[in-house]
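Just scan this pair:

***
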Amino acid sequence: MNILLVDDNVYTIRALQSGINYSALGINGVYTARNMEKAVEWLTQEDIPLVLTDIEMPNGTGLQLLEWINEHKPGTVTLFCTSFANFDYAKKAVELHSFDYYLKPIQYEDLQKLLEKAVEEVKKRARAKEKEQYEAYWHDNLRTYKSHFWEDALFWVDSYDEEELEFLAESRHLPYSREDRFTPGILRFEKEKSRMSDFPGNLERFVTGNIMAELCEHAGIRMEMFLKCRRDTWALVFSHGEEMDRERMDQVFRMLVRNLEGVLQCSVFVCYAYGCTFQDVRGRYMLLEDYCREYAPKESCVVDIDRFAERMYETGEPGEAQKAENAVSKVKQYIDEHFCENITRDTLGEIVYLSPGYLAATFKKITGSSLGSYIIEKRVERAKELLSEGSLTVSEVAFAVGYDNFTYFSRLFKNKVGIMPKEYKKTKKK
């Protein structure tokens, strides 16, 4: 830490240099100036968070120096050390937010104690500034953090149990609560037929994202994710309270489509699943994907998936129930053999020639468990076996069963087993 001593009297400067134990204060740089001009020069060139200055000086008073500091170096802790017990000076010093006002003659012990308080104030302001900078950084990057969370939640069937998504959000310090409701959706428009046909990918994402953010702000809803997931197709997630009922949400989507049509000058299609909780958002999103794959119209349209879902999987064909059970059995066998690997929902769908959404719904209907939960159960059981054997560390066990996030694995294990993996390992030692 550095300090600047400002006084037009050279003997006062020398006394301040020699009479204070700066190293005991954590101060390793002591700069001096005999006028405001030199003080400003030092403050401009060096990092000096603490200033001790006289008031009465030629060519610029200490009060004028503090005015300059407040404008150009806010956050600097400034103390006055003066021979003048002048009420007007003291009043002005308070108005300019001086840290303290010390009267000469100098008593070194008293000034040392005062400087100790000033150093603590420097540290306090530094911590506050660091916190402010961190909060600004976090706020600036919050959209990215949310997008990564929803990408994990919606697209990776083996990464997180639906029941764990609330914990995942909490562990990433995202401002969600169990009272929040989420409406995932899929937006489609043909880029080649829009005004952005010549835009490169990065510019297309930037422009489209800004358009959506502005429209959502105008509509009074919060856009948590807007991500291009495949050609001409965008995944989106809104969060809202219970006051946003189904009818009002439908009106919001229709407004979005009308405005996007006007901006892009092409057809825009949206389907959405209203009011999901953390536990059902992934399954409902897969229904949206199935609808887009099989039924999505080419013209502009807004579809509430709940008003269509009952018709999506009702084939009425003979032997359909047996086919579904066979498919689920085959998927379970694949998971049993590959649960330690990364398993995507598309991979599982390709094995039994079913869409991911239909497979997920069928699997849960027949087994009573989601695909993600079934994979996690297998991993936890294998982890228990490895921990019982005792030859691997907990982190090695986590990696062996498919988790590179040790903290999440430990939290998940405790949630399923009741104790932390380290404690479980100790209980199984012979």
